[in-house]
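Predict the 3D structure for this chain.
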Amino acid sequence: MAHSSKPILPPTSPVRAGAWALYDLANTIFSLNIITLYFPVWLNDTQDVADYSYNYALIGAMAIVLIIAPPLGHWADAHARRRWLLNLSTILCIVATASLAFAPSAIPALGLFICAAAAYYLASTFYDSLLTYVAPPDRQNQISGIGVGVGYLGSIAGLHIVGRLAQGSDGVVNAPHAFIWTAVFFLIFALPCMLLAPEGPPMHEKQNGGLRENLRQTWQALREHRQAWIFLIVSFLFLNGVNAVYANLGLYLNEAAQFSDAQCKGFLTLGIVAAMLAAWPIGWLAEKYHPKNALLGVIVLWIATLLLLVLDTQHRLIQVAAVFIGFGLAGAWTVTRPLLLTLVPEEQTATFFGFNALTGRFSAIFGLGIWGLVMKIFQDRGPERYSIGLATLAVLACVALVLACFIPRKTQKNPA
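Done. Predicted structure below.
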C-alpha cells in the first residue's frame, strides 16, 4: 500500500543549504549575461535585429516552459526525480549557451537562445521545489533570502569577471567569448547543487498513466487547493513587469538612457549590490511578519520604481532607480517561494512550482508581448516609447497589489 514518507532533515544542513544557494549564483550569471546584457545587445548592434524580435524569441522560450513545466513537475513529484530533472535542464542550458558563440548568423543564434532560455526557466522550477527539503519551514524564508543574495554575487561575477575575461584588445567585451565563459561559470557553481541537494519523497500515490493522466492529476491538484489560485493570479500580474524590465534593461540603458558600456556596468553593479544587501533582510522580514506582508511591500516598491523611471525623463534619479530595481528584484524572488510553500502540501511542491512556472512564463509572455507591441507601435517616438511601456506595466502592478490583499495568511507546518 502506498503511503507518504516525510523527509527527516536536520534543523538546517549548512552543506545542503550552501549547495542549494550556489545554484542561485550560477543561474544569475546566465540570466544577467545572456537574457539581460550581452545577447540582446549583441543581436541589436552586430546582427541588426530589432529589440522587439528579441522579446518574441524570449516569448517562444517561455511558451515551451508554459506547456511542459506542469506535467513534468507532477511527474517529478510522483517519482521523486526533481533533482534529476534539474540536472538535465541545467546541462541542456549550459550546452546551448556555449554553442551561441559558434552561431553563424542571427537565426541559428535565436534558436539556440530559445533552447538555452527554456532550459534555464525549466531548471528554475525544479530548483525552487527543492527548497522544502533543504531547510525546515521556519528557516525557508531566510534560506531563500540567502540564496537570492548569493545569487546576486553571480551577477557581479557576470559583469566584472566574465566581462574582463571576454574583453578584447580594444577594451570592448567580445560577446561570443562572454557566452562561453558564462557557460563555464554556470557549470562550476551549479555542480554543488546538482550533486548534493536533497531529493524529497514521492507523492502518496505514484501515477503511471502517461502525459494525459499527468495533466489530469495536475489539474486536480490545483482544484483541490484553490487558495493557490489568488497567489498565481497575483504572480501573473506582478511578474510580467519584473520579467519585462529585467529582460530589456540592457536595451533601455543602451537606447533610452544612452549609457556607455562602463555606465551600464556601473548602473547594474549598483542594482546588484542593493539586491544582494536587501535579500536577507527581506527574507527575515517575511519570516517575522509573514511572506504575504512582505510581498505587498515589494509590489508597492516595484510600482514606485516604474513610476520613477517614467517621470524621470532626464535620468537625473536613475541611480536611485537602480537601487529600487535591486530591492524589487531581490524581494520578488525572496518572498514568492516561501509564500507558495505556505499554501500547498509539502509532497506536491514540484507540482505547484510547475504551475507557478507556468504562471510566471505566461506572465512573462504577456509582459514581453505588451512591451514588444509598445516598442513596435511607438518605434517612431524614440526613447519615449520606453516610458509608455513602463507606465503600462505599472498599471498591471497596481491591480496585482489590490488582489494580493486577498491571499490567505497561512503558516506552513514543520515536517513530522
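The domain at 14-199+207-404 is CATH 1.20.1250.20 (Growth Hormone; Chain: A;).
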